[in-house]
């Protein structure tokens, strides 16, 4: 899979939708600034970890390198996560089964021992499909 920088993606999208590149970049910046942290989910993760110390948490996100840098500076409990998988680094995206397989192979666990939480129904459906090992 060919990796595309944010700059190149903005240039391409600008041509497709006939909108100026600075407008597209500004809109992306506004979207990134609007990101919020689900504090209840973070609290639940802490409670689960406290009740079972050997429990592992991973992040699997469809995120560009640039977006991840913004998120990385947010007030999140990063040490809680054992590993982070972003689509830009992996060259794959959810709901592609190859991304799920990549993460499972990387963390080295039996797929039957994995619980996936996601805000996209299409990602959950893909992970639960008969061709997936999850």
Major β-sheet strand ordering: 1-2
Mean pLDDT: 87
Tell me the number of strands: 2
| Beta-strand share of residues | 5-15%
CA-based gyration radius: 17 Å
Spell out the helices and strands N to C: HHHEHEHHH
Structural class label:
mainly alpha
Shape: globular
Q: Helix tally?
A: 7
Uncertain residue ranges: none
Distance separating the two termini: 23 Å
Q: Which percent range fits the helix content?
A: 40-55%
Main β-sheet: number of strands, strand sense, barrel status?
A: 2 strands, parallel
Could you list some keywords that capture this structure?
134 residues, mainly alpha, two-stranded parallel ribbon, 2 strands, globular
What does this structure look like?
This protein is mainly alpha-helical and 134 residues long. Helices cover 51% and strands 6% of the residues. The chain contains seven helices and two strands, in the order H-H-H-E-H-E-H-H-H. A two-stranded parallel sheet has the order 1-2. Helix 4 (65-72) links the parallel strand 1 and strand 2. It is globular. 8% of the residues are buried.
Helix and strand layout, with pairings?
Layout: H1 6-17, H2 21-33, H3 39-51, E1 58-61, H4 65-72, E2 83-86, H5 87-90, H6 97-107, H7 121-128
Parallel strand pairs: 1-2
